[in-house]
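Hypothesis: this fold can be encoded by more than one sequence.
Test: take the structure tokens below, design a sequence, compare later.
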């Protein structure tokens, strides 16, 4: 069976990385297929170098919005061909921190570059690879930025003004409305344990529907173990 690409999206501090790691740990305990994690930017060796160019606050040049867009596209093109497609072809489930919707939300809605241009570039960079499922962790940017400030050392994009992050969030809202089957909105202002449970339930349903039989079997086994009175 071809693998599954499952993406976690949202503004800074929404809790994507936390939930992605928790979901990966849980899926590995449930499935026999490989469960991998990755991120954009930075999912390849080249991508790690692009990531530091893009996010380092010590960057001397003000990065032009179109230059920024092209650097994210370069990172994606490398990531898709070198990592995502080969592993999906082997049947892996890949949980990825950010993908094409980030470019639409940040460079499109945030930087206000032309959406049609970004869609075209996303199609080129992704080679047509679209996520099977996207979790959008929706959070008020004021709360997200407060979480980041408490964590310390904000990156170049995290230092943008609040209205930039508001536009990014509105962008995600529009994307979720336009792709209701693929993008699932989660209220990220919820305790991490509750979010984790919600994500597990959705993954169980979606992956069972896609034919992950060992998943359903393991699940029913766990279920009877947990709830059987014997
Ligand atoms: N970007 C772009 O512009 N265009 C593109 O095409 C792509 C990306 C692909 C990547 O930065 C940047 O690149 C990003 C968009 C841009 N902008 N910025 N900045 P990154 O990877 O370094 O940052 P990030 O993706 O935004 O991750 P993050 O800031 O680390 O946030 P997160 O992964 O969503 O959250 P977290 O690390 O899981 O949690 C953050 C803090 O909140 C941490 O202290 C947690 O303990 C806490 N937390 C987590 N969950 C909760 C809950 N539920 N309640 C309370 N506190 C919580």
């Amino acid at each position: 069976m071809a693998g599954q690409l499952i993406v976690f999206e949202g503004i800074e501090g929404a809790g994507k990385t936390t939930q992605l790691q928790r979901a990966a740990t849980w899926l590995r305990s449930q499935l026999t297929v490989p469960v991998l994690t990755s991120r954009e930017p930075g999912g390849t060796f080249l991508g790690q170098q692009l990531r530091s160019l893009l996010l380092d606050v010590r960057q001397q040049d003000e990065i032009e919005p179109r230059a920024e867009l092209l650097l994210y596209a370069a990172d994606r093109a490398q990531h898709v061909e070198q990592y995502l497609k080969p592993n999906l072809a082997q049947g892996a489930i890949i949980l990825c921190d950010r993908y094409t919707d980030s470019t639409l939300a940040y460079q499109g809605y945030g930087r206000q570059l032309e959406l049609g241009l970004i869609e075209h570039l996303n199609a080129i960079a992704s080679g047509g690879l679209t996520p099977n499922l996207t979790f959008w962790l929706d959070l008020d940017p004021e709360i997200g930025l407060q979480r980041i400030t408490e964590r310390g050392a904000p990156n170049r994009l995290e230092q943008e003004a609040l209205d930039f992050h508001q536009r990014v969030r509105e962008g995600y809202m529009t994307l979720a409305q336009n792709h209701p089957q693929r993008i699932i909105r989660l209220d990220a202002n919820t305790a991490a344990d509750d979010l984790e449970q919600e994500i597990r339930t959705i993954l169980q349903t979606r992956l069972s529907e896609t034919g992950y039989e060992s998943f359903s079997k393991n699940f029913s086994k766990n279920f009877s173990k947990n709830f059987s009175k014997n």
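Confidence is low (pLDDT under 50) at residues 220-230. The pocket of Z5A is lined by residues 10, 12-18, 40-41, 55, 72, 97-98, 102-103, 106-107, 147-148, 151, 155, 157-158, 191-192, 195 (CB under 6 Å).
Hypothesis status: open.
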